[in-house]
Design goal:
Elements: H1 2-6, H2 12-30, H3 33-54, H4 65-84, H5 97-115, H6 125-141, E1 146-149, E2 154-157, H7 163-183, H8 187-196, H9 198-205, H10 210-216, H11 219-231, H12 235-254
Antiparallel strand pairs: 1-2
Length: 272
């Protein structure tokens, strides 16, 4: 990371920044800005899907940025309304199945906000299927809760309960998404799912290790974000700003340079 080179971890400047960064980290956590990023990515993936329905060969078109940003604002408002009223379940603990289903429905609505063609009030429901599978396959992998042990400079996972159920479900859904995406001639979701399915497969087959889950919770979302930017390149700017802020806060507070879309949750052995 560039910031790690400019401000080495044990330098005087790093110490000064470290004293002040907690205020920003607390604001980010208080207002759930971490979770907003997944909301935005899902919304823009729906928007890119809509553009593909209008024109199969729509790529690198900047002209739709205002429409896309309006949809992001709508999704953001819905996110905060659902969070404030405890409809969307955000927790550092694992959710019960009913709460998971509610979250899946709400995240599907975020996709629909991006996907519905307002001028025609229509959407290809069948084309939504591979995206629905990918969304569900992505949501379940975040049931593995990872925290950072600052005392030992290490990552901790809450446990491996239901490992086979979660990872096998994610893997199967990614396969379904890739197959239906290919059959429906959607190059975005078919490619994203094909690349992403290897991550739950590795975590399922190889011995239990937190690094597999860290990769699983980062790279599929990153791949989806990058491919949606093919049709919505303006989102790269928002993506880059958010990514830089999150990683900067992680580094300046914890000294973490590992790729992350969120701010690490600090945890010591006494909390485990």
């Amino acid at each position: 990371m560039i910031l790690a080179r400019l401000i080495p971890k044990h330098s005087k400047n790093y110490t000064n920044f470290n004293k002040d960064i907690s205020v920003y980290a607390e604001l980010i956590e208080k207002y759930n800005i971490i979770n907003l990023f997944s909301v935005w990515i899902i919304t823009v993936s729906g928007f890119s899907y809509m553009l593909g329905q209008i024109d199969r060969y729509s790529y690198w078109d900047w002209s739709q940025y205002s429409d896309g940003i309006i949809r992001l604002i709508l999704s953001t408002i819905l996110f905060y309304l659902c969070s404030k009223n405890k409809i969307l379940k955000i927790s550092n603990n694992r959710l019960i199945y009913s709460d998971l289903i509610i979250n899946i429905v709400i995240y599907s609505i975020f996709f629909l906000i991006g996907a519905i063609n307002i001028s025609m009030i229509e959407i290809n429901i069948l084309g939504f299927l591979p995206y629905a599978c990918a969304i569900i396959g992505g949501i379940v992998i975040y049931e593995f809760k990872i925290s950072y042990d600052k005392e030992n400079d290490d990552w901790i996972i809450d446990g491996w309960d239901n490992k086979v159920n979660y990872l096998a479900l994610s893997f199967i859904l990614m396969i379904i998404s890739a197959v239906f995406g290919y059959k429906l001639d959607d190059p975005i979701i078919s490619t994203v799912s094909m690349v992403s399915l290897f991550f739950p497969a590795v975590a399922l087959i190889w011995p239990n290790h937190v690094r597999h889950i860290k990769r699983l919770q980062f790279y599929p979302l990153f791949v989806l974000a990058m491919f949606t930017c093919v049709r919505s390149p303006w989102f790269l700017i928002i993506l880059g700003i958010h990514f830089f802020i999150m990683r900067s806060v992680n580094y300046l507070k914890y000294g973490i340079t590992y790729p992350s879309f969120g701010v690490a949750q600090e945890e010591t052995l006494a909390d485990v």
